[in-house]
Design goal:
CATH superfamily of chain A: Aldolase class I
Pfam families (chains A, B): DHDPS (PF00701)
Strand order of the largest sheet of chain A: 1-4-5-6-7-8-9-10
Family (chains A, B): Belongs to the DapA family.
Order of helices and strands of chain A: EEEHEHEHEHEHHEHEHEHHHHH
CATH class of chain A: Alpha Beta
Oligomer: homodimer
Keywords (chains A, B): Lyase
InterPro entries (chains A, B): Aldolase_TIM, DapA-like
Largest sheet of chain A: 8 strands, parallel, barrel
CATH topology of chain A: TIM Barrel
Structural class of chain A: alpha/beta
Organism (chains A, B): Arthrobacter mangrovi
Strand content of chain A: 5-15%
Shape of chain A: globular
Largest interface: A-B, 32 and 32 residues
Distance between the termini of chain A: 23 Å
Chain lengths: 302, 302
C-alpha cells in the first residue's frame, strides 16, 4: 500500500474556514485519476494550521470521497497528546495509514522523536509513515534514527526529503537507508523535483505535492519508473522543470501549487491559511504561463 | 513599562495538564522579587504547545497572582485567526501587553509577517512586543522589517535574540536598530548569556528565561546595568557562566531552566510538554551541582 504515487491534496480555505466542497472535489479528482493513495493533511494540506475539529472533518471527507483509493492522514502536532488524539480521529475516520512529522517549536532530540513515534505506534493499530521534512520541522533525522524508529511495530514507510543529484550517490543513499530498516518498510521520496531521480534510485513511493493537484503528470513519472522506463520518467520530470524552478524561486512548493489549484478553478482565491499570503499578481501570471506552456492549463488536463 | 527585567516563568505541566498551583507559585515568587514585568506564555512558558483554553487560564492566573507587576502574554500561533483569538483572550484576562513571535511551519515572507503584526495591532488595544526568536520560529527578521513593523501603532518593544560579542559592535547593532524605529519603541535583549552585554550596549530591557525562575541574579544584573555599574553587571553574568554553558551543552535554556525549577521544588518532575523529555539523570545532577556552586540551590535564594 505504501508504494507508487501518494497524492497530497491541498486543504483549501475560504475566509479562514475549510472549503469542504473544494477539498472533496480535489479528492474525487485524485480518485478518478487512479493515484495509488491519497495523503490528506500533509504539509501541502496545511495540517499544522488546522484545529482538531477541522482535521477530523477533513479526514472524514477524504475517506468519503476517495472511493477505493486508500487514504493516509497527517497527524503531526507540537504536543504528543495532540498527536495521539489526531491518530485516534484518523482511525475513526477510516484512514488506512498515518503520516507523522516531528513538528518542532523547541528543537527536539533524537530520543524525544523516537519516543513520539513509540507512543503513536503503541496506541494506534494503523501503519505509520515517518515523515522527514526538515524544511518545515527543522528536525534532522539521522540514518541511525530511521533505523531505530523503523524497528517499531507499525512503521510502514519513511518519507525522505530527497536524494543526492548524482545517480550513483542517490542509489547509495537508498541502499544505506535500506540497510538499517526492515524489509517491509518502504522508502518514499518527497521534494517533487527530485522524485523521478528518487524513483530511479530505488524508492518505492513518491509522496507528491503536484500529485495532489496535477495527478496526470505525476502518474506518468511514477508509472514510467515502475515499469523500468527510467529515461521516460526522467524526461517527464525534465519537461516539468519550469514548474520546479517556480518552487525554488517562490520559496517552496506550497504557494505555487495553491496558485495552480486556484488558476485551475479547483480552489478559491487565497486558499492558504493566513499569515501565508500566497503569490502576488505577477507571480501568479508566471504560474499561469508555465501551466499553459506545459499543457496543464485546464483542470481536465490533470 | 517595556524596560528593565521581564521575567518569563515556565508553565509547568503534570501528567499533560497545566499545574496551576505550581504556575501561580512561580508568578507570586516573581512578584515578591519585584521584577519589572512578567511575561507569561513566552517560549519558556511553552505557549506553542498549549490549547486555547489552557492559554486563557494561564493568562488569568498570571494576572491574578502578579500583584502590581504588569503581565505580558504570549499570543503566537501558526494561524493568524488563532493569534487574534489569543490576543482577545489576553486582553480579557487583564494583560498589560502582548508578546508575538511569528511561528512558522511553512517558511514565511517578510510581507506575511508584517501583515500578521498589522492584523494584531489593528485589532487589539494592547501594546505589542515583537518577538524575534529565530531559534524556535526559524524566521529571520531583517533590520528593515523591524522598522516597518515598529511604525505600526501599538508596537511597544522589540525583543532581539542577542548582540555581537564585541562591545563596540554590540553598541553599533543597537544604534542600527534604533535608527529605524520610533523613539517610543524599546529594545530588549533575550538569550540570557548575552543579556548583560546587551544591557551594556544600550538595550532597555532584558526578556529573561532565568528571570522567571531565578529572579534574584537576573535582578542583580539588570539593576547594575540600569545604575550604570556595567562592570558589576558583566561580572555577575560572568559568575553565572557555568549556567550559560549548560544552556549551550543541553540544546538551549528551556530544558535546563525546567530542571532548575524541578530541582528547587518549584515545578513537578518532568514539567515540560511531551515530546520534550527534558534532561536525563546525569544532566540533572550537573544542574544541581552548578546551582549549589552558585549559591542558588535553594528556592528562597531566587
Amino acid at each position: 500500500m505504501f508504494t507508487g504515487l501518494s497524492a497530497f491534496p491541498l486543504t483549501p480555505l475560504a475566509n479562514d474556514e475549510v472549503d469542504e466542497g473544494a477539498f472533496a472535489g480535489l479528492v474525487r479528482r485524485l480518485a478518478a485519476a487512479k493515484v495509488d493513495s491519497i495523503t490528506a493533511l500533509g504539509s501541502t494540506g496545511s495540517y499544522a494550521y488546522l484545529t482538531g475539529g477541522e482535521r477530523r472533518r477533513v479526514a472524514r471527507l477524504a475517506v468519503e470521497n476517495a472511493g477505493d483509493v486508500p487514504v493516509f492522514v497527517g497527524i503531526g502536532a507540537l504536543r504528543t497528546s495532540q498527536v495521539l488524539a489526531n491518530a485516534e480521529q484518523a482511525e475513526q475516520a477510516g484512514a488506512s495509514g498515518l503520516l507523522l512529522a516531528p513538528m518542532t517549536y523547541q528543537p527536539l532530540t533524537e530520543d524525544d522523536v523516537f519516543e513520539l513515534f513509540r507512543a503513536v505506534t503503541a496506541q494506534s493499530p494503523l501503519p505509520v509513515i515517518v515523515y522527514d521534512n526538515p524544511g518545515t520541522t527543522h528536525f534532522a533525522f539521522s540514518t541511525e534514527l530511521y533505523g531505530r524508529i523503523a524497528e517499531l511495530p507499525g512503521i510502514a514507510s519513511i518519507e525522505i526529503p530527497g536524494v543526492p543529484d548524482d545517480p550513483e550517490q542517490a542509489r547509495e543513499r537508498i541502499r544505506d537507508i535500506r540497510s538499517v530498516i526492515p524489509a517491509h518498510v518502504t522508502v518514499g521520496v518527497s521534494g517533487d523535483a527530485k522524485a523521478a531521480a528518487g524513483l530511479a534510485a530505488g524508492c518505492d513511493a513518491w509522496y507528491s505535492v503536484i500529485g495532489g493537484t496535477l495527478p496526470d503528470p505525476a502518474l506518468r513519472i511514477t508509472r514510467a519508473a515502475q515499469e523500468g522506463r527510467i529515461a521516460d520518467a526522467l524526461a517527464e520530470s525534465e519537461r516539468l522543470a519550469p514548474l520546479w524552478r517556480l518552487f525554488t524561486e517562490y520559496g517552496g512548493s506550497l504557494r505555487v501549487i495553491a496558485a495552480v489549484a486556484e488558476q485551475l478553478g479547483l480552489a478559491p482565491r487565497a486558499c492558504l491559511p493566513l499569515p501565508i499570503l500566497g503569490l502576488g499578481e505577477r507571480q501568479r501570471a508566471r504560474v499561469a504561463g508555465v501551466l499553459d506552456d506545459l499543457g496543464l492549463g485546464r483542470a481536465s488536463g490533470g
